[in-house]
Write a structure and sequence with these properties.
Elements (H helix, E strand, L loop, with lengths): L6 E8 L2 E8 L13 H22 L3 H19 L6 H8 L8 H22 L6 H11 L38 H13 L7 H15 L6 H15 L11 H6 L1 H14 L2 H38 L5 H13 L2 E3 H8 L3 H13 L3 E3 L8 E4 H8 L6
Antiparallel strand pairs: 1-2, 3-5, 4-5
Helix pairs in contact: 1-11, 2-4, 3-4, 4-5, 4-8, 6-7, 7-8, 7-11, 10-11, 11-12, 11-15, 12-13, 12-14
Length: 387
């Protein structure tokens, strides 16, 4: 449905230029969303896929291990959209205090994303409301180190930003003037807490994401915070018990369509077109997460069975296998600490896993060797190849 422009322009000055900054109308859309036909079908399919994903999260024998890896995959993907070159392996090496294969700032940015997600979920589970204050806290963690640390972490911007183009006058889009940001975010917070407008949680998440991206309240990190907001909203509403839904891979694969639909919402009020795209993404990503969990479960069972048939080294081999499931790239001292085995026992068990094709040595060195759980990392790496 074409509603027309979903906000108003305000002329403001940036340096020597006059620009038209866009101030979005408050949510929900007017006239109301038209739920019928294809959009209703997509909503029902997305809700069903989310329910299956939430169910899988309760059945995973190693839920903490899956969450550890899945959150890090999302951190890599979300940061890649913003231009980093970091891979999942780079992040895991960084967490081992090993030098990654890309500039350090790229990996710090991804590591910050993991910390921001952990911080936000901990606050929500502690009873803190999903609010502008929490969004600022998450942003503060996201930009605490590395690139962006000089761009007011945890504070709404006090200067005009723009999207696309080398200067505001040539920009593809100019968000609200800085003095309008607090009111825009307060209105968005009010929408997040509304419970009597009949909107399904998934629809509310889709609308809120566009509104946040339109406000663009920070000098840096808006895209990453906007994507995190979707997951936080679903967890906060109880739709998901664990943070297992992330749209970064879907948005990375459909980036031109994503930006085009954001523009169509602002220019023409085509919320239904955006929601159809968003709900299809939720469905695809939820189904993909379920499939990944099932594949990993099957891999772990198969590899465990192969180790169990290895004779006298099986006992220590199984313990080393558990350590690699917890952290798919490991050093020998860390495996020793995790398993409680002696260094010779760890070395013998790791040799077994290498012989079975489960583990692979990364460095080619005789000392300070690193081992990767290759089949596990290969599944996680799907979609995270460097752009």
């Amino acid at each position: 449905m074409k509603r027309g422009q979903t906000g108003r322009y305000e002329v403001t000055r940036v340096g020597d230029e006059q620009v038209r900054a866009f101030i979005p109308a408050v949510l929900p859309p007017v006239p109301p969303l038209a739920f019928a036909g294809e959009l209703q079908r997509l909503l029902e399919a997305a809700v069903l896929a989310l329910g299956r994903l939430d169910g899988v999260s309760t059945l995973l024998p190693d839920k903490a291990l899956f969450l550890y890896a899945y959150v890090r995959k999302e951190a890599v993907l979300s940061s890649q959209i913003e231009g980093t070159q970091s891979s999942l392996s780079d992040l895991l090496l960084f967490e081992l205090d090993e030098a990654p294969g890309v500039p350090l700032d790229d990996v710090v940015e991804v590591s910050n994303y993991v910390a921001a997600l952990d911080h936000g979920l901990a606050r929500l589970r502690g009873g803190f409301p999903l609010s502008s204050r929490l969004i600022r806290e998450i942003h503060g963690v996201l930009l605490a180190r590395g690139r962006g640390s000089g761009k007011d972490p945890g504070e709404f911007r006090r200067s005009q930003n723009w999207i696309g183009g080398s200067r505001p006058g040539k920009a593809a889009f100019v968000p609200p003037p800085p003095m309008a940001v607090p009111d825009c975010m307060a209105a968005l917070e009010g929408f997040l807490h509304t419970e009597d407008d009949g909107l399904p949680v998934l629809v509310r998440a889709g609308l809120a994401h566009v509104q946040f991206e339109t406000i663009h309240p920070f000098l840096d990190g808006n895209g990453r915070v906007g994507r995190l907001l979707i997951t936080f909203l679903l967890c906060h509403a109880g739709v998901l018990r664990e943070p297992l839904l992330y749209l970064s891979l879907y948005l990375k694969q459909h980036r031109p369509t994503y930006y085009e639909l954001l523009d169509r919402v602002r220019r023409d009020g085509e919320w239904e077109a955006w929601l159809a795209f968003f709900l299809e993404g939720v469905k695809q990503v939820a189904e993909g997460a379920v499939f990944t969990a099932e594949r990993l479960g099957e891999l772990f069972r198969t590899d465990r069975s192969r180790i169990e048939g290895a004779g006298r080294r099986a006992g220590s081999g199984l313990r080393v296998h558990e350590a690699l499931k917890a952290r798919p790239i490991q050093s020998m001292p860390r495996v020793r600490d995790a398993t409680g085995l002696s260094f010779p026992a760890v070395s013998s068990a790791m040799d077994l896993l290498v012989e079975l094709g489960i583990a692979r040595e990364l460095t080619g060195r005789r000392r300070n060797r690193l081992f990767v759980y290759d089949p596990y990392l290969a599944i996680l790496n799907e979609g995270t190849e460097r752009p």
